[in-house]
Amino acid sequence: MKTELSTRLGVEHAIFGFTPFPAVAAAITRAGGFGVLGAVRYAAGEDLARDLDWMQEHTDGKPYGLDVVMPAKKVEGVSEADIEAMIPQEHRAFVQETLAKHGVPELAEGEASGWRITGWLEQVARSQLDVAFDYPVKLLANALGSPPADVVARAHDRGILVAALAGSARHARHHQDAGLDIVVAQGYEAGGHTGEIASMVLTPEVVEAVDPLPVLAAGGIGSGEQIAAGLALGAQGVWLGSIWLTTEEAELHSAALTEKLLAAGSGDTVRSRALTGKPARQLRTAWTDAWDDPQGPGTLPMPLQGLLVAEAVSRIQKYEVEPLLGTPVGQIVGRMNSTRSVQAVFDDLTRGFERAIDRVNRIAGRD
Amino acid sequence: MKTELSTRLGVEHAIFGFTPFPAVAAAITRAGGFGVLGAVRYAAGEDLARDLDWMQEHTDGKPYGLDVVMPAKKVEGVSEADIEAMIPQEHRAFVQETLAKHGVPELAEGEASGWRITGWLEQVARSQLDVAFDYPVKLLANALGSPPADVVARAHDRGILVAALAGSARHARHHQDAGLDIVVAQGYEAGGHTGEIASMVLTPEVVEAVDPLPVLAAGGIGSGEQIAAGLALGAQGVWLGSIWLTTEEAELHSAALTEKLLAAGSGDTVRSRALTGKPARQLRTAWTDAWDDPQGPGTLPMPLQGLLVAEAVSRIQKYEVEPLLGTPVGQIVGRMNSTRSVQAVFDDLTRGFERAIDRVNRIAGRD
């Protein structure tokens, strides 16, 4: 599965795998794809350095990338404490009420909140980049808009390609104008932050909008048939995130959450602002229902909502409080029905791709 | 572009075109596709008979189908007047207020409401079928659930294949259990009544759910590349509706509406209950905004909403009141940017399909 972009990056298959877990990212790269490690959960540079060291040792010299979440709009001189202070009391009370209603225990005294969203903050993202630029990362992706010009320049100086997610042709053109190298067209059905346009429509629209820039199709892709579809739509590769969440290498640290993912159907996700303040697709839970309820206080804008709910999400995850337990995931969750190794998933993708090509060739009378 | 289903129906290309306009349906059939005439706008059997006579004369003996809107739930012995009586006064007042706010003129005295939704009513759909069964229709499609068992039996007695739209694998299995022959997997991005699951995820899910029943991919398809994607996902054909709305043969009878469609981007549609009471994708307008506004009275369930707004929609269309003027259409509206003949659109589809096959074969190393 070779495109101009996969050849340029030196990978066997034009399959890009986004994941917050180093073991998954490394396994994707070893399987012949391009693993992209999500950095948002790393609050401290040393944690990221430790995991990038590990990646270096476990990728056999093959290429991998890093995904940061750097908001497009820069907020100068604002600390985490300043932002915390902007959160209304009503919303804090609603968090506690919702947790109490479901009997979610407190964290032990002094126990740190495990789920972090501090990577949303520019200063944190920048400290992550300072670390990352010491490693032979081949691709830097940004989930929220184009990275600042100086970051793009630093990446390019090091021969690192820069990508960003886009939910519309307008966003994609903005990335092109900002000098980016790759656009990830993130369809409505995708997990995490998404727009309203589904992949079937968005992919070719973005391809046309930024031609000749390479585009990766993201959203709704978890089989080789879907990869073939994404490539038929003009993408130079596909970007898969959700499908790795139930692999053996994923470190969800919650059997209950894994069970929920394995049991969920494609209709069990919702696009909600509950987690970050921007619409992000995730499992629909009593938690998302509470925030999406017109009778409730509603969500706060990013980054307030993320800071507001961080400790609560940690508690829900630690104590595995089933009705509230969720995670960002796409509609593809409906076909995540067994726990397999990354290699097994990858083999399934490449075999399914070949089957799909056979199929369309038969239909086109080319067999 | 041949599949088992297209061969069975005797068409050259597995492209199914749904349209309310006989001239469009006939042109799709003549071009080598399968034209499907939407019957919902026919209140009287004689009007449908006249247009089916015309179809017979203009399809060169090639096959075509009919699409009715027969609600799955039968309401016995209820007349249109009975249903009218269930509409609250508050909602009637809201219609008049919204029309007045935008200065929509009244219809002339005695002038009939041109936009009809009476085809939603079972007795009307049944009278349409009584007419249709006298013609060599090859496919009967139902937009709202499985048709009643006696209708399926009557169709099968005449060698007519029966199809129904499905927005989920569960709906699709229901159609299979009801003895239907084809499922149209209608993705989130589609125009008209849609569910929440996007085509990229829905198509393969439905294919797997009803195997070996043939599935048509619908939603987001308006180019040959998108056709290739739909077929790669396992469909035996594609079902296109929106793309024909701006063809030369389409009888929208409103230059302003055609202009709106040509100008709209993929983000200019909304899934709203404003038109029928069930979520249907359409152009976003001041009309849909009014009904979707949490401050307003909200929409009524089908069929009440459709009856409530029928005359208003006729007035908006007749007087082309721009801010309110809309139509069901999918996200593909973003690429409907010029008025061309059905044949030109069709040629574009088949050429784009061949290009997409070339492309994926190059990526797969099969060129």
From TrEMBL, chains A, B:
InterPro entries: Aldolase_TIM, NMO
Pfam families on file: NMO (PF03060)
GO molecular function: nitronate monooxygenase activity
Keywords: Flavoprotein, FMN, Monooxygenase, Oxidoreductase
SUPFAM superfamilies: Inosine monophosphate dehydrogenase (IMPDH)
Record-given protein name: Nitronate monooxygenase
